[in-house]
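In the laboratory, one determines a bound structure by crystallizing the protein with its ligand and collecting diffraction data. In a computational setting the workflow is compressed into a single prediction: the sequence and the ligand go in, and a structural description comes out. We illustrate the idea with zinc ion.
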Amino acid sequence: MPQGATERKPWQYGAAPLWPAAMTAPRFHFSIAATDGKARTGTIRMQRGDIRTPAFMPVGTAATVKAMKPADVRATGADIILGNTYHLMLRPGAERVARLGGLHRFMRWDRPILTDSGGYQVMSLSALTRRSEEGVSFKSHLDGSAHMLSPERSIEIQRLLGSDIVMAFDELVPTTTTVQQQAEAMERSMRWAKRSRDAFDAGGEHAGRAALFGIQQGALDEKLRKASADALLAIGFDGYAVGGLAVGEGQEAMFATLDFAPGQLDPDKPRYLMGVGKPDDIVGAVERGIDMFDCVLPTRSGRNGQAFTRRGPINLRNARFGEDERPLDESCACAVCGQFSRAYLHHLIRAGEILGAMLMTEHNLSFYQGLMEDLRAAIATGTLSSFAADFRAAYHGGGTGD
Ligand SMILES: [Zn+2]
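The predicted complex, in structure-token form:
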């Protein structure tokens, strides 16, 4: 240690306050810089940093974007990441994260974090769920322990985590249920949206520094979607998510719903399409007026050996890449494509090496952020339709990555 240097304990490195000291940025402000058809590009200003839209949020399920250090996630171009309420409430527990200074300090990501409400994972992952007007009781998929999620508890957990964008707690039903069931679930979700709003507003300092999004439901039905939008607009939120899509209905049905659903929401607020999606899903949704996305696809499929390229996805497990010395994507500017060959990645993935998952994830997240950057530039220059046509032609041009 150099003379005069003060010895610091490991836990003092990078220790940050729960909120940044300089409070020059507004709590939440969305400005649209340019539009092209229904598409918009702009900036969300928040206290922990700006979010350029359309934005893609990498998913950090368990307080980590899997296989990536936070600084490397940022280097791909991500302005914001997503954290999962359901996973974090079960392990390590929201109260523990709060005692350790909040999610940002815990995982060393100092930019905005959006947290989901936990409702989707409760339905999809846990056993023995029981729904009532109060909320959803369930048993943990990890150890079978009993838990309860309600609008009030979901908002409390998101506050304990120190979330920047909090999602209202809602009830998800499959698009295959009857219209009557969808209507009842949507109406309950709107009552829960009001309870979420009230719980958020009672949150003290957190309410003064974070934002709350409502979630439109109503499956594929235009009238239900309109009723849901009207109920949310009457309550008032900082942004609005289009929920209940990307649950197996297919791209055609999703786009048909996106032809009307975003237009029913406040045009001056961000619109977030939850859980989407494949690169061509994102391009089509941006054309229909969506501003924000999240999806596990680039990270999960990267770990499974799939790389996204402008000429379609490729599976690096395939034997034909065994002696292919080209980068994953010759048009990609990421650090992985600048250094490593398909042949090397093929070897790492076949051998089950951890570095394979790390490099594939880094490339895939860079690909997604590069796509968002190109979409923002195309909207800004009024060239979105030709960009989208060129993108689709190359992407679906055989899917060989060649
Ligand atoms: Zn790359």
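Residues 10-15 have pLDDT under 50 and may be disordered. Keep in mind that any predicted model is a hypothesis to be tested, not a measurement.
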